[in-house]
Amino acid sequence: MFRNLTPVVKNLLLINIGVFVIASYFMPGLEKIFALYYVESASFLPTQFVTYMFMHANFWHLFSNMFGLFIFGPLLEQFLGPKKLLTLWMVCGVGSGLLYSGYNAYKIHQLDQEIEAFYANPSPDTFNDFVKDNRHLFKSGVYDFIDEYSKNPESKSLIQRAKENYNGIRDIQINIPMVGASGALFGILIAFAMFFPNTELLLLFPPMPVKAKYLVLFYGLYTVYNIFNNNPADNVAHFAHLSGLIVGGILVYYWKRNRKNFY
């Protein structure tokens, strides 16, 4: 099985696994440098648009991304060549990080508008709605504060505490890092589906064959659903997945339109 590994795929696997082992057991602070933070965060570095894709949150996060690369990468590398496969991986990873950061900026802008609206017209009901939307980021003690604030809506000290909670949540939001090669992997998936659309793949769950184009279509629709569902407790960067599909699709389309050499 491992004899069929192509050079770029093998090196990407080794680098990702190596970084995970180093960060998990020898340099736990590496995530602070490699993970992708929002541009306003004190931890943000421009290099993170590249390094974040080599970091993973846990073993299963690493396994799922590397398994996908292991399954789809070798055939693509044989077809496209090492240079184009590496270009696909890196462009989709970096592009996914850039688009996700833009999406994150939009979400932070929405949060800033909420904060501005509360500052202009503070009320317990508005604060309660804010807590419901961000309940996964609050500690349980906030509900005692809501009760107290509801009973004393004109209290300047309670209004100030509510404002501090708003700003505290904003600070948390801009310091949530993104890690993982999912954006790059989704670029590999869309490329595979565009070059080998009718290749049948055997799923594990459920155990049934499915054509590559339908599998990627399902992943795309599922990702879009999760973006619009907007579950606040969901810590998966679904927009980054969608970004990988978009960037990968555009790059492959460009390659197919500008074929100067045979793959």
UniProtKB/TrEMBL annotation:
Which sequence ranges are marked TM in the entry?
12-30, 50-73, 85-103, 184-205, 235-255
Q: GO:BP terms for this protein? A: proteolysis
- Molecular functions (GO terms): peptidase activity
List its EC numbers.
3.4.21.-
Any Pfam family the entry gives: Rhomboid
Name the keywords, alphabetized.
Hydrolase, Membrane, Protease, Transmembrane, Transmembrane helix
The family classification in the record reads: Belongs to the peptidase S54 family.
PANTHER family associated with the record: PRESENILIN-ASSOCIATED RHOMBOID-LIKE PROTEIN, MITOCHONDRIAL (PTHR43731:SF14), RHOMBOID PROTEASE (PTHR43731)
Q: What is this protein called?
A: Rhomboid family intramembrane serine protease
Q: What organism is listed for this UniProt entry?
A: Belliella kenyensis
